[in-house]
Design goal:
The complex is a heterodimer of chains A (119) and B (359).
Chain A lengths: L4 H4 L2 H18 L12 H15 L8 H8 L6 H17 L4 H13 L1 H4 L3
Helix pairs in contact in A: 2-3, 2-5, 5-6
Chain B lengths: L2 H11 L3 E5 L6 E4 L1 H6 L9 H4 L5 H9 L4 E9 L2 E12 L6 E8 L1 H38 L2 H10 L5 E13 L2 H7 L2 H21 L3 E6 L2 E6 L8 H22 L6 E15 L5 E5 L1 H12 L5 E4 L11 E10 L3 E9 L10 H4 L5
Parallel strand pairs in B: 9-11
Antiparallel strand pairs in B: 1-2, 1-5, 3-4, 4-5, 6-8, 6-9, 7-8, 9-10, 11-13, 12-13
Classes of the chains: A mainly alpha (119), B alpha+beta (359).
Chain lengths: 119, 359
């Protein structure tokens, strides 16, 4: 069995760096930044680290039900979703993640779109 | 560039928020650009402890009195970001720069990492616990097919070596006409009853320091003296035989179906070993086992048969009846005996074994 993306890129230590850099971009974005105005970033970064880890084949898992529940009521539209995906892709590229792997993560995010986009 | 200008530039561009405040009223005497970003009202003449609620003037003075610095944590909002700050204050006693030096560090990232480490270790602990549970479950399963000591050997060394036990005793039980029974009656019901019987046998075996090695169809095999050696092995097996028969007799009185068994017991050399690699079981071999099997075959229904090899080992605690001599291939002529209860097994109530166990 080949190593998962999660293991190849150095596990939680690396993913957490990527996620922190990712949220720096997110907060600066005029499209989605306001969503996070009053968010407890510590908890969000922690969850997102586990979520991205799970997309990369690491331990931790988030069911669609959980994702639906935590995004419900946020009125997330397609534009906001696309912006977040684009920012993540940019961040991954900055961290020199292989383009094929970036694409795999992007597709995994995209497959969750129906449970996150509510308007 | 002169030094004064350079120092000023350095102060203004530092990532650390810096200020000097008045020792008495805590008003700000000097602040740099970074501190101004975090606390825009810093130079409006407000005492710093009014501006930053977390600062407790008395606590601060108490620390200063002990010659120590004073640190608090606070959160400020900068744009969309909430920034965690560590604010360290220390007394500067130099006559030309008397005042309190205030340093503010952005510790948001550290806070985020601390939170993540904690959450990560909680997750790892949780996974460890579930792994541990799984390990215990596997261990329990393995202990069903091999003695504990053999399991420990397998766990530590990855392999086990066959062991020779010179002093061990074996019991074999087989039911009379079992094959016919299974065919003529409902097989599921028979198996359920068989399960009850073997469960009861196991409990008797455990009580007398014996260990069930395996069942094969309607046959039941137990040993004593393996892998833990005991000088009582023959007596243990004899007690087990008596009580298994007594259990069956009592059970037959209360049940519509009568189970009758043949029991053979023997003492001798036994080899114990794990057999198989992918699918392994612990099994026993050797003359001690073979002769026990022969005894069992020769036994009449509800009779316990042993031979002259074993009788000296069970002492005078049992009643034995001398029977005929029989020629055994590979063993020569052996005198047979029939085992009955004696002083070792008092007429006790085996009712404890009658209770059905949940399976």
């Amino acid at each position: 069995m080949s190593a998962t993306m999660f293991d190849r890129y150095g596990g939680f230590a690396s993913v957490s760096k990527i996620v922190m850099a990712f949220y720096d971009r997110v907060l600066d974005s005029d499209v989605v930044g306001f969503y996070f105005e009053d968010t407890d970033m510590k908890a969000l970064i922690d969850h997102q680290t586990k979520f991205i880890s799970s997309l990369m084949g690491g331990p931790a898992s988030y069911s669609n039900d959980v994702l639906r529940r935590v995004h419900a009521g946020l009125d997330i539209d397609r534009r906001a979703f696309d912006e977040v995906v684009a920012l993540l892709v940019e961040t991954l590229e900055d961290f020199e993640i292989d383009p094929d792997d970036v694409d795999e993560i992007r597709q995994a995010m995209e497959s969750r779109a129906p449970v996150i986009i509510t308007t | 560039m002169n030094l004064e200008h350079f120092n000023k530039l350095l102060l203004e561009s530092a990532g650390v928020g810096l200020a000097v405040i008045d020792t008495d009223d805590l008003t700000v005497l000097f602040s740099n650009k970074r501190l101004h970003e975090w606390f825009p009202e810093v130079d409006t003449g407000v005492p710093l402890d009014d501006l930053i609620d977390e600062i407790d003037r008395d606590a601060m003075r108490e620390r200063f009195a002990k010659g120590r610095g004073y640190t608090v944590e606070a959160t400020v909002k900068a744009g969309r970001r909430s920034i965690s700050l560590a604010i360290h204050m220390s007394l500067s006693e130099a006559p030309e720069s008397a005042g309190i030096v205030v340093e503010c560090q952005n510790i948001s990232k550290i806070k985020e990492l601390e939170y993540m480490i904690e959450s990560y270790s909680t997750m790892v602990e949780k996974q460890n616990r579930s792994l541990q549970r799984e390990k215990e479950r596997v261990e329990k399963l393995l202990l069903n097919i091999m003695p504990k000591r053999i399991y420990e050997e397998l766990k530590h060394f990855g392999v086990t070596t066959p062991q020779r036990y010179d002093n061990a005793s074996v019991l074999m039980v087989d039911f009379v006409d079992f094959t016919d029974m299974a065919i003529s009656r409902d097989p599921a019901g028979i198996i359920t009853e068989l399960n009850d019987l073997f469960t009861a046998f196991d409990r008797i075996a455990e009580q007398f320091g014996c260990e069930r090695i395996k069942t094969m169809g309607d046959a039941y095999m137990a040993v004593s003296g393996i892998p833990e050696q005991t000088p009582e092995h023959a007596v243990n097996i004899a007690k087990l035989a008596i009580l298994i028969r007594r259990y069956l007799r009592r059970r037959n009185e209360a049940h519509s179906h009568e189970w009758r068994c043949r029991i053979g017991i023997n003492s001798g050399v036994v080899i114990g070993s794990i057999v198989g690699v992918q699918k392994y079981v612990y099994d026993i071999f050797g003359p001690g086992v073979n002769l026990a099997a022969r005894m069992e075959e020769l036994a009449e229904p509800m009779q316990i048969l042993l031979c002259e090899d074993m009788t000296p080992l069970i002492g005078d605690e049992f009643n034995v009846t001398e029977l005929e001599e029989v020629e055994f291939k590979g063993f020569g002529r052996k005198r047979l005996y029939q085992l009955e209860a004696g002083s070792a097994i008092m007429p006790m109530e085996p009712d404890a074994f009658m209770q059905r166990q949940p399976v």
